[in-house]
Amino acid sequence: MNAENFRTLLEIQSLENLVAKHNKTIASETSRITLIEEERSSKETKECLLKKQLEQCKHTASTAEKKLFDYEKSLEKTNEHALLVTSQGQAQAIQKELLKLGEEKNKLEDEILSFIEQQEQLESEIQACQNYLQGSLETLKEIQEEVDKKIFSEKKSIAGLEKRIKSLDEQAPSALKSLFSEANKNYRYRNPIAFLEKGYCNQCHYAANKIKEKAVDLLTSVETCEGCGRLLAPQTAKAAHLRG
Ligand SMILES: [Zn+2]
After folding, report:
1. Could you list the pLDDT tens digit for every one of the 244 residues in the chain?
2. Using a CB cutoff of 8 Å and minimum separation of 24, what contacts does 49-53 make?
3. Cα of 204 to ligand 1 centre, how many Å?
4. Among 171, 200, 226, where does a domain finish?
């Protein structure tokens, strides 16, 4: 075993970290689309709700209008009766009735007016929703194109990196490969290879004992960190890797 054996793995680790960066870009590009889609979906829900409210409002207004028509008929009839009264008592009763009907008619007219205002308000809100949905659909298409292009190029980069990783993996010494792939199961994209810095794992900061530290440095055996399970590489390998 020598430090060179770790170099291949460290290179794989560097390339894997680059893959992770590209994956992060893909995720952030995808989220641009998701965000617009979520906003659109919530607007669609709002539009649907407003339409229901508008239907309800129209229905209530039409009921009130029918009621108003009935009041107007009653008023007409009462006015006709007023012409036929024969006593003071009857005249008073009819006046009272006319007053009452008149008040209710006014009240109903106010209600209908307010329903009309509500309808106008709802219709303008629905229109705003529809304008938004139409505008954002165009934006979505434009951004989707941009995002697709970006993701395509990111995936191409990833494919290139993975090809290099695969070929390096074939060159990796078998003695280290199984421990590396074991550490990679848990720490892929998060540095499966660690170094001991002054006796501490540089990833999880677990303190290694002196015997392990020596074994790692002198490459007498392949060791993993007891704290995190990462494969421990000697400092010499790190220096060689950094030199490139
Ligand atoms: Zn560790």
Report:
1. 677 789 899 999 999 999 999 999 999 999 999 999 999 999 999 999 999 999 999 999 999 999 999 999 999 999 998 888 889 999 999 999 999 999 999 999 999 999 999 999 999 999 999 999 999 999 999 999 999 999 999 999 999 999 999 999 998 888 888 889 999 999 999 999 999 999 999 999 999 999 999 999 998 989 999 999 999 999 888 887 887 6
2. 50/122, 50/125, 50/126, 50/129, 51/126, 53/122
3. 4
4. 171
Residue 59 Cα to ligand 1 midpoint, Å, equals 70
Dist. CA 213 → ligand 1 center (Å): 13
Co-location of 154 and 235 in the same domain: no
Q: Is 244 helix (H, G, I), strand (E, B) or coil?
A: coil
Statement to judge: residues 223 and 143 lie in one domain: no
CATH classification of the domain holding 131:
1.10.287.1490
- Which pTM value belongs to this model? 0.77
Distance 11 CA to ligand 1 centre (A): 19
The amino acid at residue 123 is E
Residues 34 and 152 in one domain: yes
CA separation for the pair 27, 19 (Å, rounded): 12
Q: For residue 9, tell me if it sits in a domain.
A: no
What is the rounded CA–CA span in Å between residue 163 and residue 232?
25
| Residue 88 Cα to ligand 1 middle (Å) | 106
Report how far ligand 1's centroid is from the alpha carbon of 145 (Å). 43
Q: Determine the structural domain holding residue 201 and report its residue range.
A: 174-243
My answer on whether 220 and 232 are in the same domain is yes
Distance, CA 200 to ligand 1 centroid (Å)? 8
